[in-house]
Design a protein that fits this description.
Blueprint (H helix, E strand, L loop, with lengths): L5 H25 L2 H27 L14 H30 L7 H27 L7 H7 L3 H30 L3 H29 L6 H13 L3 E5 L2 E6 L2 E10 L5 H18 L3 E8 L8 E2 L1
Parallel strand pairs: 1-5, 3-4
Antiparallel strand pairs: 1-3, 2-3
């Protein structure tokens, strides 16, 4: 799972700007805390999209003396900031507003504004989610959606999919609680809706923050890719033994691979260089995200076997 798509992010940002304006307008006319929470949610999502675009831009900077492996991890850093903002601003404020309106309930007036805005917002958010899913599915393959979401290294596109999914769920909650408040006359439903939206955002941000943390502190290739590398090494006649590959992600499309390999004793330096080039080309062809490979020749006693 790799690759970073700006298309999904631009679509989400444009949709969220329009939706945030309409939600705040409805909140002013109706006094609904749920609608205010939804407006804050869309505003935060807009800012998050801008931060993700900033992260992508910064990650494309070329390597230099201070950062010899490049700036690919910028994507993971800014994705983590997005997760924190969803938690602190989106979830925290929505939860606060909900509790405040439960303790001091107010009648929601001109509910037609809320219905119109919520229905339009669901359409717009659904469209943005559709774009995000289309970009996400391009690299998903046959893996289940949930597993792909956990294993993906493209945190920027994943963030948009997660945010838009949470937005559609939040809008649905707002629509249901608005309807229940109208037909029952119970004013607490408005605050309850805001609390539920806040809890939803807190859960989403926690999940996403955990995924970003794993990549920030250093995550290697999945076991399936390790098997591919081992298979390439074991099939090469010039390789007599090797240790488990050491790998590390420096960005969605930037992976470092370190190999400790023992070659046949009768090889000269020119032959070893050709073998190294061959191994590197085969590994990069098998795993396109790998862009740096360091192969160290050493003596390994166990023959034709991977040593952990």
């Amino acid at each position: 799972m790799s690759g970073t798509s700006k298309k999904a992010i631009y679509g989400a940002v444009i949709a969220n700007i329009a939706i945030a304006i309409s939600k705040f307008t409805a909140a002013v006319f109706t006094g609904s805390s749920t609608m205010l929470s939804e407006g804050i949610h869309s505003l935060v999502d807009t800012g998050n999209g801008i931060l993700l675009l900033l992260g992508i831009k910064k990650s494309k900077r070329p390597a230099d003396e201070n950062h010899p492996f490049g700036y690919g991890n910028e994507v993971y850093f800014w994705s983590f900031i997005v997760a924190v903002l969803i938690f602190a601003l989106g979830g925290g404020i929505a939860l606060y507003e909900g509790i405040e309106h439960i303790l001091h309930p107010k009648e929601v007036t001109d509910v037609i504004w809320n219905y119109v805005v919520l229905i339009l917002a669901i359409v717009f958010e659904g469209s943005a989610l559709s774009i995000g899913l289309k970009e996400f599915n391009k690299t998903r393959g046959n893996v289940s959606f949930y597993k792909a979401l956990i294993e993906t290294k493209d945190t920027s596109t994943a963030a948009i999919v997660i945010e838009d999914s949470a937005a559609v769920a939040g809008l649905t909650i707002a629509l249901i609680t608005l309807f229940l408040g109208q037909i029952t006359g119970i004013e607490y439903f408005d605050g309850i809706g805001s609390v539920l939206i806040g809890l939803l955002l807190l859960s989403v941000s926690t999940f996403f923050a955990i995924e970003c943390k794993s990549l920030l502190i250093g995550e290697g290739l999945p076991e399936s890719d390790i098997h591919k590398i081992n298979s390439i090494l074991s099939k090469d006649e010039a390789v007599t033994a090797y240790k488990r590959p050491l790998t590390l992600f420096f960005g969605p499309d930037e992976v470092l691979v370190n190999l400790n390999v023992n070659f046949k004793d009768d090889l000269v330096s020119d032959e070893i260089e050709q073998i190294v080039d061959r191994l590197e080309n085969e590994i990069k062809k098998s795993i396109p995200s790998v862009n740096r490979i360091f192969i160290e020749a050493e003596t390994i006693l166990t023959k034709r076997k991977s040593m952990k």
